[in-house]
Design brief:
Strands 4, 5, 6, 7, 9, 10, 13 and 15 form an 8-stranded antiparallel beta sheet that branches. The chain has a 4-stranded antiparallel beta sheet with strand order 8-14-11-12, with no helix packed on it. The protein has a single domain, classed as q2cbj1_9rhob like domain (Jelly Rolls, Sandwich). A hairpin with a 4-residue loop joins strand 2 and strand 3. With 349 residues, the chain is an alpha+beta fold. The longest helix has 20 residues. It has 9 helices and 16 strands. The chain is globular. The two termini are 13 Å apart. Bound molecules: fe (ii) ion and zinc ion. Fe (ii) ion (FE2) binds next to loops. Zinc ion binds next to loops.
């Protein structure tokens, strides 16, 4: 989420936020809802193929979808009241609110030295020399955070979940999610991290996907556990460049698999790649690249997710509906659109 939302300035979403890309976990299907007739015409058959065969099962799905549409209508006002209330939250590690270079893995700091940032090639060479890998076209992994910082962040997330009564779900695919914005980390932790480090990388490695014009972000934590939520279904993200940073090591399995890019599904040359998740390491990829998490076979895994956004890209086409965005004003937690003009200055600055 952008700094401007943390400052409670008006933000914008595409109207598709309210009724599209609704995930039916039980049947592994994304749906949209305008009315009962449209829903039946568009999805009844697909649902039946996925095992939703009885009238009762279908009406349960319909109720679930309508409830989600209602939740989305009040999402931003609820987020705002949660955000304001959670300002009272008492941190167990208050120092994590303030970004410090000591949180960063020394290999990442070495990789980000000025001399390595001349162009994409020099950056990729230093990435490979400092514990990073190129897994495929525009899929990279490299160490970012120290283990000590990862542990503190997980402890803080866990404490936040236990001590706050009201939280907003960052998305419908993972009900264990926690918004890092709502936790109060946008201004002084995430913004400097993205502005001083991540944007430098996206500018060199994702310039063809808006990486040189990132001006807002959304960040949240997700948790997988073997019994309740072992995996994540295939999807793409609502961003331009995505990062998934693994925060712990007490799990087995859970590789992140990256496949085709939205709009380029016919690209048969694109080999799927499965990337191993390691504590303190991130996986960076185009947000529009379809991906899913393989099941973890043991333990619990927590990841911090960052979706970096460029208004200059998304003002032209909303990634979630594929149309020119139908822009709607919201009080907080927008999706990185601006009102017809590009932001005059980077909201990450
Ligand atoms: Fe994702
Ligand atoms: Zn849209």
């Amino acid at each position: 989420m952008s700094q401007s939302s943390a400052a409670l300035r008006t933000e914008y979403v595409c109207s598709c936020f309210f009724n599209r890309q609704i995930f039916i976990k039980k049947y592994g299907l994304h749906v949209s809802y305008d009315n009962d007739t449209q829903f039946e015409d568009d999805f009844r058959q697909s649902l039946r193929f996925r095992g939703c065969s009885t009238d009762k099962q279908y009406s349960d799905v319909l109720s679930q979808v309508k409830a989600e549409v209602e939740r989305r209508k009040s999402y931003h006002s609820t987020f705002l009241s949660n955000y304001l209330r959670n300002r009272e939250y008492r941190y167990i590690h208050p120092e994590i609110i303030q970004f410090q270079t000591s949180y960063l893995d020394q290999r990442f700091l070495d990789m980000m030295q000025e001399k390595n940032l001349q162009n994409a090639d020099t950056l990729l060479q230093s990435l490979a020399a400092n514990g990073g890998f190129v897994h495929g076209q525009q899929v990279y992994s490299f160490p970012i955070f120290t283990k000590n910082f990862c542990t503190q962040l997980i402890e803080e997330i866990t404490n936040f979940k236990q001590s706050t009564q009201e939280r907003s779900l960052p998305n419908t695919m993972n009900f264990e999610g926690v918004s890092l914005d709502e936790m109060g980390l946008s201004y002084t932790f995430l913004t400097p991290l993205i502005k001083n480090y991540f944007q430098t990388i996206t500018k060199l490695l994702f310039s063809n996907w808006g990486g040189g014009a990132i001006d807002s972000f959304k960040s949240f934590a997700v948790r997988y556990d073997k019994d309740k939520h072992p995996s994540l279904s295939k999807h793409f993200d609502n961003g331009e460049v995505s990062m998934s940073i693994c925060l712990n090591s007490e799990f087995e399995g859970g590789d992140l698999q990256l496949e085709q890019v939205l709009g380029q599904e016919e690209d048969l040359d694109m080999e799927p790649v499965a990337v191993n998740q390691q504590m303190g390491h991130c996986i960076m990829h185009r947000s529009r690249q379809f991906h899913f998490a393989h099941p973890i076979t043991n333990g619990v895994r927590t990841n911090m997710i960052v979706w970096m956004r460029s208004s200059s890209i998304r003002n032209e086409m909303c990634p979630m509906c594929g149309q020119r965005p139908d822009i709607q004003e919201v009080p907080i937690a927008g999706d990185g659109f601006t009102l017809g003009q590009e932001r005059t200055s980077c909201s990450c600055s």
